[in-house]
Amino acid sequence: MTLPSVTPDWAYEREHWRRGYFRVAGVDEAGRGAWAGPVTVAAVILPGLATDYPFRDSKQLTPAVREALAVQVREVALSWAVEHAWPEEIDRLNILGATHAAALRALARLNPPPQALVTDYLKLRAGLPISAPPRADALSYSVAAASLLAKTERDRLMLELDGEYPGYGFAGHKGYGAPAHRAALQSLGVSPVHRRSFAPVRALLSRSEPLFDPQ
């Protein structure tokens, strides 16, 4: 089911502003459900001016529009940071734990630091006041801005991985479970950037399928 398009606003940020927390970081991730590549988390603090921005949930936008808006996010943000959790960390911590770890690293890099958080249902233990509603990337300007940085940066990395590991189609499906990706796994085996703890990949390893050979 396709969810209706929603225009973000400042409602969640205002809740924190009223309590005296004016540097509110939006946090969002990209790639959490993919079978390969990193999960990427961005944190963004926008100026607390209640300005209307064109930022939207990155899933609602074309790649070209996402790229243009990501440039604008970096230009207007008080601070921003992007961090990745790669498959080794995902397999060690599980996907939720790795997402939290990458989010905390991104928040630690913000300068000036945040005083409160709005996340897309990511209930971080960061020692800060937090709002974590579902669909926050569609409801909050700050989280929408973070979604743009996370998505565009992860897509860039997946294009690079497509060149390093040809045949898997990373440039197209970005590591998600598309039929072409499943077929490539069956044909080529598991690459170093696949998440071995994810069921479709683990199933191949349990059958002793060969690992990807770049030669």
Automatic annotation (TrEMBL):
<dbReference type="GO" id="GO:0043137">
    <property type="term" value="P:DNA replication, removal of RNA primer"/>
</dbReference>
<dbReference type="Pfam" id="PF01351">
    <property type="entry name" value="RNase_HII"/>
</dbReference>
<keyword id="KW-0255">Endonuclease</keyword>
<feature type="binding site">
    <location>
        <position position="120"/>
    </location>
    <ligand>
        <name>a divalent metal cation</name>
    </ligand>
</feature>
<keyword id="KW-0464">Manganese</keyword>
<comment type="function">
    <text>Endonuclease that specifically degrades the RNA of RNA-DNA hybrids.</text>
</comment>
<dbReference type="InterPro" id="IPR036397">
    <property type="entry name" value="RNaseH_sf"/>
</dbReference>
<feature type="binding site">
    <location>
        <position position="29"/>
    </location>
    <ligand>
        <name>a divalent metal cation</name>
    </ligand>
</feature>
<dbReference type="GO" id="GO:0032299">
    <property type="term" value="C:ribonuclease H2 complex"/>
</dbReference>
<dbReference type="InterPro" id="IPR022898">
    <property type="entry name" value="RNase_HII"/>
</dbReference>
<dbReference type="InterPro" id="IPR001352">
    <property type="entry name" value="RNase_HII/HIII"/>
</dbReference>
<feature type="domain" description="RNase H type-2">
    <location>
        <begin position="22"/>
        <end position="210"/>
    </location>
</feature>
<keyword id="KW-0378">Hydrolase</keyword>
<dbReference type="GO" id="GO:0003723">
    <property type="term" value="F:RNA binding"/>
</dbReference>
<keyword id="KW-0540">Nuclease</keyword>
<protein>
    <recommendedName>
        <fullName>Ribonuclease</fullName>
        <ecNumber>3.1.26.4</ecNumber>
    </recommendedName>
</protein>
<comment type="similarity">
    <text>Belongs to the RNase HII family.</text>
</comment>
<dbReference type="GO" id="GO:0005737">
    <property type="term" value="C:cytoplasm"/>
</dbReference>
<keyword id="KW-0963">Cytoplasm</keyword>
<dbReference type="GO" id="GO:0046872">
    <property type="term" value="F:metal ion binding"/>
</dbReference>
<dbReference type="InterPro" id="IPR024567">
    <property type="entry name" value="RNase_HII/HIII_dom"/>
</dbReference>
<keyword id="KW-0479">Metal-binding</keyword>
<dbReference type="InterPro" id="IPR012337">
    <property type="entry name" value="RNaseH-like_sf"/>
</dbReference>
<feature type="binding site">
    <location>
        <position position="28"/>
    </location>
    <ligand>
        <name>a divalent metal cation</name>
    </ligand>
</feature>
<dbReference type="GO" id="GO:0004523">
    <property type="term" value="F:RNA-DNA hybrid ribonuclease activity"/>
</dbReference>
<dbReference type="GO" id="GO:0006298">
    <property type="term" value="P:mismatch repair"/>
</dbReference>
